UniProtKB/TrEMBL annotation:
Tripartite ATP-independent periplasmic transporters DctQ component domain: residues covered: 23-153
Name of the protein in question: Tripartite ATP-independent periplasmic transporters DctQ component domain-containing protein
Bilayer topology term: Multi-pass membrane protein
UniProt KW keywords: Cell inner membrane, Cell membrane, Membrane, Transmembrane, Transmembrane helix, Transport
Source domain of life: Bacteria
GO cellular component term, pick one: plasma membrane
Protein family (similarity comment): Belongs to the TRAP transporter small permease family.
Tagged with keyword Transmembrane helix: yes
Annotated localization: Cell inner membrane
Chain segments annotated as transmembrane: 15-35, 47-64, 85-105, 125-147
Keyword DNA damage: no
Length: 163
């Protein structure tokens, strides 16, 4: 299980880097091409937008794994550590529930997009491919938070990145 987690971690980070390089490369090329009038990439902005959507949702998966999503820490100063641990577990369960809920409805929306057959204006790729990352990202975030909640309850070291 630990090995699978490490493979998944590397895969997430690799996809993130590839998308970032593609997005920056296309935008840089389109910008230079526009000013030098050497090349015109009509679909550059569209591809960059879709890469950004994927980067955001893969980023939330990585943020959930590392426990680096934003949180209100004002209560840390006033409550004992045990009470804070209970509050963190409860908050994580709520976030987990929301992610599963949103992923479920994201799949429903994705199914309607598959049936609709809409394609992107410039690239002419199916819109469901672009937006498939939304339910996937939310489901993966929920899974990461479920693992985090389990480790919090079991009192295991959650700062290690073993999946």
């Amino acid at each position: 299980m630990k090995k699978l987690g490490q493979i998944l971690n590397r895969l997430e980070e690799s996809i993130l880097v590839i998308l970032l390089v593609v997005m920056l490369g296309v935008i840089f090329t389109a910008t230079v091409g526009r000013f030098t009038k050497i090349i015109t990439i009509k679909w550059a902005e569209e591809l960059a937008r879709y890469c950004m959507i994927w980067i955001v949702f893969i980023g939330i998966i990585i943020g959930a794994r590392k426990g680096e999503h934003f949180a209100v820490t004002a209560l840390d100063m006033f409550l004992p550590k045990k009470a804070m641990n209970v509050i963190k577990i409860i908050a994580t369960i709520f976030v987990d529930g929301f992610c599963f809920f949103a992923a479920y409805y994201g799949v429903k929306i994705l199914n309607s997009q598959i049936k609709g057959g809409q394609v992107t204006p410039s690239l002419q790729i199916p819109m469901w491919i672009v937006y498939s990352i939304i339910p996937f990202g939310l489901a993966m975030m929920a899974i990461r938070y479920t693992i985090r909640t389990y480790k919090d309850i079991a009192g295991k070291d959650i700062d290690r990145e073993d999946g």
